[in-house]
Amino acid sequence: MVKVEEAEAIIQAEVRGFGTEAVAFDQALGRVLAEDLKTDRDLPPFNRVAMDGIAIAYAAFAEGRRSFTIRATQAAGDAPVDIKTAAECIEIMTGAALPPSTDTIIRYEDLSIENGIATILTAEISKGQNIHPQGKDKKRHEVVASAGQVISPALVGMAAAVGATELQVKKLPKVVVISTGDELVGVEETPLPFQIRRSNSYMVQAALQKYQLHAHLLHIPDDAAAIDNQIAKCLQQYEVIILSGGISMGKFDYVPQVLEALSVQQLFHKVQQRPGKPLWFGKHDSGAVVLALPGNPASTFMCLHRYFLPWLEASLGIYKPDRYAVLNGDITFKPPLQYFLQVTLHMNAQGQMLATPLEGNGSGDFANLVEADAFLELPQDKVNFTKGDVFRIWPFK
Q: Where does the pLDDT of residue 338 fall: very low under 50, low under 70, confident under 90, or very high at 90 and above?
């Protein structure tokens, strides 16, 4: 049996990349950008008008002129219209390209317009005001988004703005989530009194979808030969195998012995923690990594967030800072195990993240997970945990 920190280090030592691929920019949300995104032209690509109003040559205003004849009206997307004399102006809209013969925008709020004459009503005018200069944001071929970041809606918009119809992103591993157990039936079925519906695999699959990773699901009954046959196939087809159940001390918990028979190298089995003590991790010569999660739902959920998702993020180049919260109640936990306490989170007026314990009924109680926001990791070298103490959190909302 290993400590939590040892299990984490063993799993993190197996971080690996899975290559890159091109995807359509509008399908890339949530993926990890694999190469820098650069502009194909200046941003903005022209001197952009930033206010509705009129465009003038500032020199005329500086010489005392306050009224200007409107030569034309120019909308965003129109070709620029130049003035012919300093006594003229162009009525112009936000987003339009500034006519080269003008250099200053006077907004409508500072004007009166009557009979085609625009009169400036304020003396507070400065040359170049209300103009977003060409190239002010980025120059042509300048990096607008660095590789290694998760693609956000803003980045999708930027890709569209620079004409990047495809983006290079980090490839996701091929993942299968396998549930085992004769007591499990399909979601659409009505269970017998001694049966339950399969839920863990769907919970794991849903947690992976926020990375745009769509795992395949497979269920195997409690039969050693069937488990051996299916896992042998999966070791050749998938880069990651996540199992749920079948790894404890029960008579029908065949998974560890099957993995050993298939030459999957066990890197650890059992962790000094609650929930999730039976956790198993190993690797195969095919390159596949295997994470066998305990069957209890809260254990499955905690181990996924404490161990697998950090491994996945590191493999994709996503690095997140550790997060901490203040315990918002006294807790006593006597077993010499690292305890992952379900908590709700909220921010107080002082900007502190408070973690309020949520009472539960053990690792089989996953109704609380709907209400909880995170696991608070309590070290195993203490028994009493006092309100106001600070501990690491593993958020899942």
A: very high
Contact present, 165 and 26 (Cβ < 8 Å): no
- Buried-state track 254-287, b at ≥16 Cβ within 10 A, e below 16: bbbebbeebebeebbbbbbbbbbbbbbbbebeee
Q: In which residue are the tokens 């691929």 written?
A: 21
Look up residue 257 and give its amino acid.
Answer: Q
Assigned token pair, 71: 């030569």
Bridge partners for 113 per DSSP: 118
What distance in Å separates the CA atoms of residue 67 and residue 72, rounded to the nearest whole number?
A: 15
The overall average pLDDT reported for the chain is 93
Q: What are phi and psi of 297, to 5 degrees?
A: -55, -45
Query: Pairing between strand 273-274 and 390-395?
Result: unpaired
Domains of the chain: 4-18+172-315 (3.40.980.10), 20-43+136-170 (3.90.105.10), 48-132 (2.170.190.11), 323-395 (2.40.340.10)
CA distance 6 to 53: 66
What letters, b where the CB count within 10 A reaches 16 and e where it falls short, cover 36-52?
Answer: ebebebbbbeebbbbbb
**Inter-residue contact 343 to 374 (CB < 8 Å):** yes
Phi-psi region of 137 (alpha: psi -120 to 50; beta: other; left: phi over 0): alpha
Distance CA 19, CA 251 (A): 41
- What tokens does 280 get? 């198993």
| Helix, strand, coil distribution of the chain in percent, nearest 5 | 20, 30, 45
Signed CA dihedral, 118, 122, 127, 133: sign only: negative
Q: What is the pLDDT of residues 225-236, one digit of tens each?
A: 999 999 999 999
d(CA 307, CA 309): 6
pLDDT digits over 158-212, tens only?
999 999 999 999 999 999 999 887 777 788 888 888 887 878 899 999 999 999 9
3-class state of residue 331 by DSSP: strand
Q: Which residues contact 276 (CB under 8 A, 6 or more apart)?
A: 293, 294, 299, 300, 302, 303, 306, 340, 363
> Are residues 137 and 44 in contact, defined by beta-carbon separation less than 8 angstroms?
yes
* Entry pTM: 0.86
